[in-house]
Amino acid sequence: MLTSPTILDAADPLARFQADFVRSDPDLIYLDGNSLGRLPRATADRVATAITEEWGRGLIRSWSHWIDLAREIGDRIGAGVVSARPGEVLVGDSTTVNLYKLAAAALDARPDRRVIVLDDDNFPTDLYVLQGLAAARNLELRVLHTDIDAGIDVDALRAALDDDVALLCLSHVAYRSGALADMSTITEAAHAVGALVLWDLSHAAGSVPVPLTESGADLAVGCTYKYLNGGPGAPAFLYVRRELQATLRQPIWGWFGQQDQFAMGSTYQPVAGIERFAVGTPPVLGLYAVEEGIRPVVEAGIDAIRAKGVALTSYAVDLSDAWLTPLGFRLASPRDAARRGGHVSLYHPDGWRICQALIARDVVPDYRTPDRLRLGFSPLTTSFEDVWTGLSRLRDLVAAEEHLTFDATPGRVT
Amino acid sequence: MLTSPTILDAADPLARFQADFVRSDPDLIYLDGNSLGRLPRATADRVATAITEEWGRGLIRSWSHWIDLAREIGDRIGAGVVSARPGEVLVGDSTTVNLYKLAAAALDARPDRRVIVLDDDNFPTDLYVLQGLAAARNLELRVLHTDIDAGIDVDALRAALDDDVALLCLSHVAYRSGALADMSTITEAAHAVGALVLWDLSHAAGSVPVPLTESGADLAVGCTYKYLNGGPGAPAFLYVRRELQATLRQPIWGWFGQQDQFAMGSTYQPVAGIERFAVGTPPVLGLYAVEEGIRPVVEAGIDAIRAKGVALTSYAVDLSDAWLTPLGFRLASPRDAARRGGHVSLYHPDGWRICQALIARDVVPDYRTPDRLRLGFSPLTTSFEDVWTGLSRLRDLVAAEEHLTFDATPGRVT
């Protein structure tokens, strides 16, 4: 017996946050908040004020407002989104650039070790960055095979770790399956062999608790345009454990990491704190959008967000079992809610065409190869009604074979 | 006999462009458009539309608008701001990150050479990036001494070039003096020994013609928040000569440089074109601000901008000679207009206090160590009246010794 979404929405303690976000088209069911979060209502005004007042009126004098933004917003992420202490998180650059900086810094800190351990289910840009670093430094990439529906096999991972491993780099939440890695257990296993650990939090931050402090994680990077609602291409963040900061040096030496920056000294001498991982001029407009994007996340609290995320994904799994399995779908995510993050994937051999047909029915999912519909449930903006309506439209279109009229060749993700 | 600014403004063919920019405070004389360009009137609406319509309403579906923006805006810079061919310019990342990518790519392309040539008057972040690359690769940094008021000594530079030089990296316009380097002569000298050349265009782009194509320059990076009016921390651009693109590979392997990106292949295989120098998700809001920032530059035309830049700086030099030299100032820029870009610096032993006093008089200059007031004249937004008024306030405050009441210890640039 499936619960009515009306009942679930009525009991949802986070329901009020939906009003904090723009919903231009009430008929559109948006199940891709894990790819691009919805627009917070406050963002347009905040960015407009920054443009008109701070830039337009204040001009260069507004640098007094801007100079510390990257660290201040980082601290808010550390306090309310992930678990980190003040001075451990910095916003700026892209996730990929941050991953490069921190991975390179970690490898420099373990110069006698020759191995990077990763898994083949990590996000492609992570794979590429590590391939580039391994090629440049002639290191071994030890690639663990991960079941793309089930997530990391911790026993196999342990077996891949030895005292030649400099760096372990994994995603906290897998980008396809949503599988949630056990950050504490895995970090401990890496530390047992003396390796550093770099976590990609892109699909985790704002969706699940991220125990950076508690797990002893060394390094992390994350995206702000997914569950953190920072907007398209919003600046990413990085985390470096306080105790490691002075011992690590990232490879892109830039003036925003320099001591007494505006003395314009001729020799690079990085500051002691988290800003040594900064590079160039911070993207001010993007930073303000991030500030507004994280505000409702911090206000709601990550534990409440996680609870709703579990409820949303569990509801989707129940509906899928009832409605979609008979139509040839298979759950491509962990069935145990404790082992998955805020999204679930559904495998169907005709996934690409179904994705296109679903968009034509005003439901926006994401598509991930091979043949997976990825359904992202952003707890602050997705209602149980959205889940019900989205999956019922999916059921109806496949039952009616509407997808057979669409091109079967996978193209650009829309 | 000093010409009246009224006469000069009346004859200024670019005067109409001042109306395209916000001037909130008519009494403020802004002589720092070379540090942060004024706000174009169109920018706030363009960014607001991107936020509200493309992000808010279109959500993830708007990637069809966003996916090629970095190259499209790059092409506009190549067509109307610097001299480059389609597919040679890309917008994204910070100037410093771009400098790192291109310098590393150049060094990889000359693996048997051990020397990077630079000059000690290059912008600090350039020095730092090259120091970092030299340290990581155990290369020699051959640092040419440049007179900070006069610019690069081409004969001394030639003497520093030999067949062990992999890369020459210089600024087209010096950040303090405004000295304009001879891009063609210097590029030719570097090519004669088989070195690659990387130009920092940050203080040149939008102010002087940048003959990348004509000079045969290999690589360049530039800033968009100065004369290109892109706003605080706006994404930078990079240039890679078409013939070199396929042979160069930058070190930060990311998914926005990957062939068939959304196939999410497991092995990095960069695209053939300029986007192989892309890394992560492009900063969409920042890109739109850049698009609006360059629009009036392209419309005015760089030759007209250059002509007015020469007129503005020459006028400032004339006023300074008449009014400021008797008060202890000295021109810290080339006196020959053909040898300087869009800004001039004035040395005074009490420069820092004078800078503070000038700001208190509603004139915003920039301060650069040691003891230099840097006066940036952005041809699209600065009138001859601005130059006259700004320098007369400077004259009056020094004559009245108002600056003696300010703190003499240089601090943060305001």
TrEMBL record, chains A, B:
InterPro entries: Kynureninase, PyrdxlP-dep_Trfase, PyrdxlP-dep_Trfase_major, PyrdxlP-dep_Trfase_small. Pfam families: KYNU_C. Pathway: Cofactor biosynthesis; NAD(+) biosynthesis; quinolinate from L-kynurenine: step 2/3; Amino-acid degradation; L-kynurenine degradation; L-alanine and anthranilate from L-kynurenine: step 1/1. It catalyses: L-kynurenine + H2O = anthranilate + L-alanine + H(+); 3-hydroxy-L-kynurenine + H2O = 3-hydroxyanthranilate + L-alanine + H(+). GO terms for molecular function: kynureninase activity; pyridoxal phosphate binding. The modification N6-(pyridoxal phosphate)lysine is found at residue 226. Keywords: Hydrolase, Pyridine nucleotide biosynthesis, Pyridoxal phosphate. GO terms for cellular component: cytoplasm. Pyridoxal 5'-phosphate binds at residues 95-96, 123-126, 200, 203, 225, 255, 281. Its cofactor is pyridoxal 5'-phosphate. Its EC number is 3.7.1.3. GO terms for biological process: anthranilate metabolic process; L-kynurenine catabolic process; L-tryptophan catabolic process to kynurenine; NAD+ biosynthetic process; quinolinate biosynthetic process. HAMAP family: Kynureninase. Catalyzes the cleavage of L-kynurenine (L-Kyn) and L-3-hydroxykynurenine (L-3OHKyn) into anthranilic acid (AA) and 3-hydroxyanthranilic acid (3-OHAA), respectively. Belongs to the kynureninase family. Homodimer. PANTHER family: KYNURENINASE. This is Kynureninase.
